[in-house]
């Protein structure tokens, strides 16, 4: 094994040497190759951030560029690759373009170096991606049946992961929510036979963390060194270990489902079965492939839901004036539910809760930028700008969310902002947490918008419902809402910060 790795590494070195020689021969012609974007203003992301138009984080670079170029394109360099920032007014014309012309999946494969980090199913084009199919077609359709299981698992997760809180107790949302999210998502993805298994939970959580860290670490190496570096990076080693663990755990599950399918027996309706049904005949029984698919869907669910839920917990603690109105709304809706838990049909009635989540997201988006795409065939924008094949585009989502031309008093946190907007004639079905638009692209927009946002939204709502119905919430004494941590490529909630919880005594 070690000898194979060494031989492979040596082979890579010789191969890279040959490639380098060829590149040097053709360097002259490459230098003088015309760049159709050279006239587009450019900002640079750099940790030093001392030169003109150079900033230490992506957020600061977008904050500088967006007001000046709100209606035209500008470029951001210094990231994993140069990105062309497209203004909101051009998005409607781009959102319907198919993946073979403008692709989110292919950008993510490049950004996260999927061939090295395993952040994509091997040899699987977008139209054959079983995870995308299962989430888009099956998960969303079965949300109604999943609600009681989610409610049950979240109750269990709170008992396991949150202290008793008989008196005011500090809880750290980022770290404490991750396991609850893994439990709840796992219940729908693999069922109760496996979702509480400690190896399964550890596997899904660590894979989510390691795969993002692996991509960040690989970015620190020159391109020609990355494949070699992947052999010794501990994050990638752990990703491979997680894949092996998931394969071991999924083996009896997949074999049992295959037998049930072959014998015409009833098969549990969950992500495992949906993935198998959406696979080709050859892939359906490929346990390594099915295990990898399970890890990828778990990664997406855990990352999105835990981060956004952490933000809402910080925001409800920072704005306790919203707790009572939200409790009253939840109580009124629960009165209509004979089973005592929130169903898919009752979720749309929680308009205040939905609004609070969307306002929290407006201030704390999952990504500073979104609508990320790779251009596969040249596109000409309405202003005449040509985007050549191979260009990466994005939008300044966080800046759009705070744009005074789009929002009244955008700097003010108004938890019921979107509930009030929905009261306007013709706006009843707009401005929901899951709806997207050129003014709200945190889940993307168009055909390639996040297909799992409906499932994630219900989870995030149930987490917040369980929190405020069972606990009083506040920030630690003398502290304000924790600032998000900004990095070169985006923002995230501060995992070191906490909120204070005290279990409620509810009068019968």
Measured on Cα atoms, how large is the radius of gyration?
A: 24 Å
Summarize the biggest pleated sheet.
Answer: 7 strands, mixed
How many helices? 20
Low-confidence stretches: 1-33
Name the beta content range: 5-15%
- Cα separation of the termini: 65 Å
Q: Compute the average pLDDT.
A: 90
**Beta-strand segment tally:** 14
Tell me the helix content. Answer: 40-55%
Please state the overall shape, judged from the principal axes of the Cα atoms: globular
- Structural class per helix/strand content? alpha+beta
Characterise the protein shown here.
This protein is α+β, with helices and mostly antiparallel strands and 508 residues long. It is 50% helix and 9% strand. It is built from 20 helices and 14 strands. It has helices at 2-25, 27-31, 58-68, 91-94, 104-111, 114-117, 130-139, 143-161, 173-189, 198-219, 223-229, 234-262, 271-277, 281-284, 287-318, 323-334, 351-363, 397-400, 417-422, 453-470, and strands at residues 42-45, 54-55, 74-77, 83-85, 102-103, 169-171, 370-375, 379-380, 386-387, 392-395, 471-474, 485-486, 491-492, 499-503. The strands form four sheets. A seven-stranded mixed β-sheet has the order 2-1-3-4-10-7-5. It has a three-stranded antiparallel β-sheet with strand order 6-14-11. Strands 8-9 form a two-stranded antiparallel ribbon. A hairpin with a 4-residue loop joins strand 12 and strand 13. Helix 8 crosses helix 20, helix 10 (198-219) packs across helix 15 (287-318) and helix 15 packs across helix 20 (453-470). The longest helix is centred in the middle third of the chain and has 32 residues, at 287-318. The relative contact order is 0.14.
